């Protein structure tokens, strides 16, 4: 007598080789970003979105800071060059 300990996923419709003949239906791949996020809890999507936005703002602030440093350096170089040119005239 054969005892089964639980229902296994591979015991449903057995073929001659012992494997199931049932075809598993897969969901179609998501067509856009929002479809792929639908499987996650809304609070997790909001938290990750917040982190991404904060990181983007931080990166833009760093870019603006270094742009201002470059602009100040160029103004100093142009001022020194203009002063030297005016002295030599």
Measured by DSSP, the beta-strand proportion falls in under 5%
Radius of gyration: 33 Å
**Count of runs of 4 or more consecutive helical residues:** 2
Strand segment count = 0
Mean pLDDT: 81
Largest sheet, strands/sense/barrel: none
SSE pattern: HH
By oligomeric state, this entry counts as single chain
- Share of helix, binned: 55-70%
Judged by helices, strands and strand pairing, the structural class is mainly alpha
Shape: rod-shaped
C-alpha termini separation: 112 Å
Low-confidence stretches are none
Notes on the protein architecture:
With 89 residues, this protein is an all-alpha fold. Helix content is 57%, strand content 0%. It has two helices and no strands. The chain has a domain at 33-88. The model has no long low-confidence stretch (mean pLDDT 81). It is rod-shaped and about 95 Å long.
